[in-house]
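Please produce the structure of this protein holding adenosine-5'-diphosphate.
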Amino acid sequence: MRILFAASECAPFAKAGGLGDVVGALPKALHALGHDVRVVLPRYQFIATWNKRRHLKPLGVPLGSDELWCGVLEGQLPGSDVPVYFIEHDALFYGNQPYQGYGGGVNEMARFALLSRASLQLCRFLDWVPDVIHVHDWPTAWVPVLLNTVETGPDFASTATVMSIHNMAYQPRFSPDGLELLALPDSVFVSDGLEDHGEINPFKGGLYHATMVSTVSPNYAAEIRTPEFGAGLHDIMNFRGADLVGILNGIDEDVWNPATDPHLPHHYRVDALAGKAANKAALQMELGLDERPDVPMIGVVSRLNHQKGTDVLIGALDGILSLDVQVVMLGSGDSGMEDELRHRSHYGLGRFFAWIGYNERLAHRIEAASDMFLMPSRFEPCGLNQMYSQRYGTLPIVRATGGLEDTVEQCDPETGAGTGFKFNDLYEAALYATVIWAVDVYRTRPELFRTMQLRGMRKSMGWDTAAKEYAQMYEWALGRKRG
Ligand code: ADP
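Below is the modeled complex.
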């Protein structure tokens, strides 16, 4: 099958969250199954050009009343032959991050409308017509809309579209004038299309127009059909229910491997765990925490915001720290939460440390050093850190929502089963009680704790299973498209 990934992020080139991880990894796993997979993304200003091949011919992309001329650079996903095409147009793809925000200087709608239109032009440019175009969240949701309206020529007549939902919480709205940018007819600006309370909502439009829709865990696929999790789109999710599939994300088992991780001072594996304690000692020393091997260390690596339940975590922090544990946090996000955590870290007394910012190396070290890992998310489409934790022998303590529910098995003290600890209600008291439980198992049932660690480390979490499920879904989408 020929598959084009059109996306606003792709690790390691441009990443703001889990979407970038998926687009950086899934194409490689599909390629390994024998598919012809390619990726297209913007050549943001922060992406280096020196190691990429520049196509001599420019790419013309109609936008509004103009034709914009774009450069095309070509590279590969690291460690693979999967081609990545970078669309270059400095007037729109500038700045030091993929998204400029709705109030930012860049017209966010034009930026990704250009990417979407350019993705189709690129296929013509390469004389390569995909069977499936796989788009991701709102930025490339324009593609299915375009293929059902203005791009109805013979070249894409048999091309199916799949839209993946990575996070429903990000739904920008744009003025209806934006329709002109993509030369879209008024007929798409309807409530079962792009229109949302008088404005354009590309996320919504994509969900209506894509041949099939997927999201990143089976549980989140069920949750988004309810008002609590559907972010205003639950009716559409029910309407598209027969075409909606939940496929659990994998993780990159080469990057997240405690036996080879270059960020770790000490390596370890399931049959030689001693290095884990050595990583804990090294991190305690590095961060100025009390150097005590017996004290349970609880890690957090997260965006700091309402979705991740950081507010509840901060509320429960004093109680948690009273349990004679150490808490190590890494994250950035809401400025009030950042300030609060900085302040508390200043008075951390050897028990609490917070590093505000983005730090890949520290993220790996926290996963390796910690005994437990906290993720009290309000909603979580899939979540990656709870999977990294299990692979690193670190027991996740999570709210049972979305992909956290799918990927963490509850501790069962009777049978010795489980890979972590789950709670249902997002209250400080519930979080606190679950931490007490986990700490109690750590202190009084070390053999149970160890059994759970080993079970988590032995789990298979790579992308190969997900890739097979996506390939199956592409077949279904093609079946629907081609009748
Ligand atoms: P989301 O995409 O909602 O932020 P995920 O758990 O799906 O959450 O993915 C988050 C990714 O970003 C993980 O790879 C995680 O390790 C990484 N990450 C988040 N915050 C930081 C940070 N401050 N420093 C380093 N890595 C981070």
